[in-house]
Amino acid sequence: MHRTLRRLLVLGVSGWVGLVSSGAAELILKPVADTAILGVNPDNNLGATPELPVGAVNRLEGEIRTRMLLRFDLSVLPAGAWVSRAVLGVEVLVKRDGSGPAAVGAHRLLRTWGEGSKAGLQGVVASEGEATWNERLKGGGAWAEPGGKGGVDFVAEASAVTTVDDLGPVLFSESAGLLEDVRKWQSDAGVNFGWILVGRDESVLASARRLGSREHPTASPTLRLEYSLPELVPFDSVGLQGDSIQLQFHANAGNVYTVWYRPALDSEGWLTLTNVVSKLVPAEAVVSDTPEDGVRYYQLAITGQVD
What is the pLDDT at residue 129? Predict the structure, then answer.
């Protein structure tokens, strides 16, 4: 086994090291899907409506809550991009006279939903596969509870929060949670179901605002990403200790290093094995790995700097 493992290891490392230019860049994305779900019209879809409500409507009886769903496609990021900043923005288009400021949270969705194609301020009865207050996918999957349930349909804790008040653009607070969501989706597009915008106090009548959707010509939501391309560097040595692969490299002070791996040369994307942070002084770093199948290819990259 060691002879085969050593041969594949050398091929894996020496075949993929090299230098790639790095540098900060910015990307501004618009949603690829968005809609709102209305408690007052629980079977309607609003997938093609330019103005989508979030918050509580001015209604004395029945369900008053409204929520907005949106999803961005991160596949446009360059391969290997390291996202260092993520800023979610929306624009308030309609506010009820006399209503005060209202806090809104962006929660990472855990289940798929259908944007739909219905238009109108109150929407239209949904067709199969479209999202409503009652169903993620009309005829194909209900929410855990009408409007979605925290901890099942979406993460209970908001990834970021903002306050909506007057008309105009609004940015969600920059947070580790929002950035973590983006990085999670970047590494696994299969779990990218986007965010649901939920009022922090949905009991306050007339707190709802109408926000621009992707169909609006000038007020679409945006996701601004700042990223850098990693600088690939070689390992100093590669060896075996028992069945474990030992990857050694010199870590300069102030850098964040990431060791990536893939099980085959034609695998899609690289997976993170570990990150190494060298804060104050240079160090000789050793990373160990024990592949279950005995075959892996590795890359080493500088992916950031220590503040």
Answer: 98
Range of the domain at 149: 25-228
pLDDT one-digit tens code per residue, 191-207: 999 999 999 999 999 99
pLDDT, one tens digit per residue, over 98-117 is 889 999 999 999 999 999 99
- Nearest CA to 70 out of 228, 212, 283, 272 is that of 212
Measured over the CA atoms of residue 130, residue 131, residue 135 and residue 137, the dihedral's sign is positive
Q: Using CA atoms of 277, 282, 283, 287 in order, give the dihedral in degrees to the nearest 10.
A: 40
Sign of CA dihedral 215, 220, 225, 226: positive
Q: Which CA distances in Å does 123 have to 35, 53, 136? A: 10, 11, 15
Q: Under a CB-based contact definition with an 8 Å cutoff, are residues 204 and 58 in contact?
A: no
Neighbours of 181 (CB within 10 A): 24
Tell me: do 58 and 100 sit in the same domain. Answer: yes
User: What is the end-to-end Cα distance of the chain in Å, rounded?
Assistant: 43
Q: How many helices (H) does the chain have, and how many strands (E)?
A: 2, 22
Q: Which residue has the tokens 């949905």?
A: 202
Residues 187 and 241 in one domain: no
Q: Which of 16, 34, 3, 163 is nearest to 92 (CA)?
A: 163
Domain tally, the chain: 2
The conformation of residue 154, written as its DSSP 8-state character, comes to B
